[in-house]
C-alpha cells in the first residue's frame, strides 16, 4: 500500500507534547517493520483531539480514538493485517458498494431492497428492479447557513467520547496514525475489524473517502470491530437519509441485520437523518 514516510519512530524527538504512550507494530503475521500507530497509555481527555490534530498535521499524523471495548481488546490484539491491505485510491466507492449490495441485499432485504432507490424518477432499466443496487446517494442540498467545519465536528464528537458519555467507549485513548486523510486511517494500520465482511479494508476506505467528499465525514473512533464516524454535513431530509441508507447497508449489513431496526427506512430516520455521528459494527 502507498503510505506516507512513517514519522512514528521519531515521535520522541518530534517536538510533540505527548502523554506517555506505546507504539504498535504487532500484526496477525508478526511484528511489522515499522510502527503502525502510537496510542496513549491512559484515557483520552476532551482536549487531546484538537491539540494533537493541530500538532500532528505537520508530521503527516492524524488522530483517532481507540477503544478496547467490553472485551478490553487494544490495538496489539486487533489482528492488524497491513500486508493484505491495498491502497484506497485504487478502488471505486460505487463499484465496491454495488458488489456488497449484490452479495447481501437480495437475500436479507428481499423485494424491499431497492426501496431506498434514487435513480432518475424511479425509472427502471434492464439492470434495475427489486433488489437492484440503487446507486450512490447525491450529496445533501447545501444548507443556507455556512456548515460547521468538519474537523470541529470531529473534535466535538471525540470530546464526547473522551468524556465517557458512552459506557461502551469509556477509557478510549488517543492515537496517532500516519495517513493522508481521515478516511485512510483504517487502511494505514491494516485494521481488520470488518474481516467477516471484507478482507481488504482499503475497499471500505474508498467508501469513507466518498463520504468525506459528500458528507464531510471523519473517522473518529476504532475498536476491535467497531467504527464511529463524525458527519459534518448529514442528510437533512428524509429523502436524503433514505437514499444513503442503501450505502450504509452495503458498507455494514450487520448494522441492520443484527441490530434493530431491521428496516432501511426506519434505520434512515433513526441513524442517519440529521445525525452527526454514524456507528458501525461488524460481527
Low-confidence stretches: 111-130
Largest sheet, in brief, is: 7 strands, mixed
- List the total number of helices: 8
Structural class: alpha+beta
In short:
With 283 residues, the chain is an alpha+beta fold. It has helices at 48-56, 93-109, 150-162, 185-189, 201-215, 238-251, 254-257, 264-272, and strands spanning 21-24, 26-27, 30-31, 37-40, 61-66, 173-178, 217-222, 226-231, 277-281. It has a seven-stranded mixed sheet with strand order 1-4-6-5-7-8-9.
Molecular structure report:
The protein is an alpha+beta fold and 283 residues long. It has 8 helices and 9 strands. The strands form 2 sheets. The protein has a 7-stranded mixed β-sheet. Strands 2-3 form a two-stranded antiparallel ribbon. Helix 2 crosses helix 5, helix 2 packs across helix 6 and helix 6 packs across helix 8. It is globular, with a radius of gyration of 19 Å. About 7% of the residues have low confidence.
Amino acid at each position: 500500500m502507498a503510505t506516507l514516510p512513517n514519522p512514528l519512530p521519531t515521535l520522541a524527538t518530534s517536538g510533540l507534547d505527548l502523554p506517555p504512550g506505546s507504539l504498535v507494530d504487532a500484526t496477525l503475521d508478526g511484528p511489522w517493520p515499522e510502527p503502525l500507530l502510537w496510542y496513549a497509555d491512559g484515557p483520552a481527555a476532551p482536549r487531546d483531539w484538537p491539540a494533537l490534530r493541530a500538532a500532528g498535521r505537520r508530521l503527516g499524523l492524524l488522530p483517532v480514538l481507540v477503544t478496547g471495548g467490553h472485551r478490553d481488546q487494544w490495538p496489539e490484539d486487533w489482528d492488524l493485517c497491513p500486508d493484505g491491505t491495498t491502497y484506497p485510491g485504487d478502488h471505486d466507492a460505487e463499484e465496491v458498494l454495488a458488489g456488497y449490495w449484490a452479495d447481501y441485499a437480495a437475500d436479507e432485504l428481499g423485494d424491499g431492497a431497492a426501496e431506498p432507490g434514487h435513480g432518475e424518477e424511479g425509472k427502471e432499466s434492464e439492470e434495475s428492479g427489486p433488489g437492484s443496487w440503487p446507486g450512490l446517494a447525491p450529496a445533501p442540498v447545501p444548507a443556507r447557513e455556512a456548515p460547521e467545519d468538519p474537523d470541529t465536528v470531529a473534535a466535538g464528537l471525540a470530546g464526547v467520547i473522551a468524556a465517557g458519555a458512552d459506557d461502551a467507549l469509556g477509557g478510549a485513548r488517543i492515537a496517532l496514525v500516519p495517513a493522508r486523510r481521515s478516511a485512510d486511517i483504517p487502511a494505514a494500520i491494516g485494521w481488520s475489524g470488518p474481516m467477516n465482511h471484507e478482507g481488504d479494508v482499503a475497499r471500505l476506505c474508498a467508501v469513507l473517502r466518498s463520504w468525506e467528499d459528500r458528507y464531510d465525514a471523519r473517522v473518529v473512533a476504532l475498536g476491535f470491530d467497531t467504527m464511529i464516524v463524525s458527519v459534518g454535513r448529514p442528510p437533512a431530509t428524509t429523502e436524503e437519509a433514505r437514499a444513503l441508507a442503501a450505502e450504509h447497508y452495503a458498507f455494514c449489513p450487520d448494522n441492520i441485520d443484527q441490530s434493530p431496526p431491521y428496516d432501511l427506512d426506519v434505520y434512515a430516520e433513526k441513524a442517519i437523518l440529521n445525525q452527526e455521528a454514524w456507528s458501525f459494527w461488524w460481527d
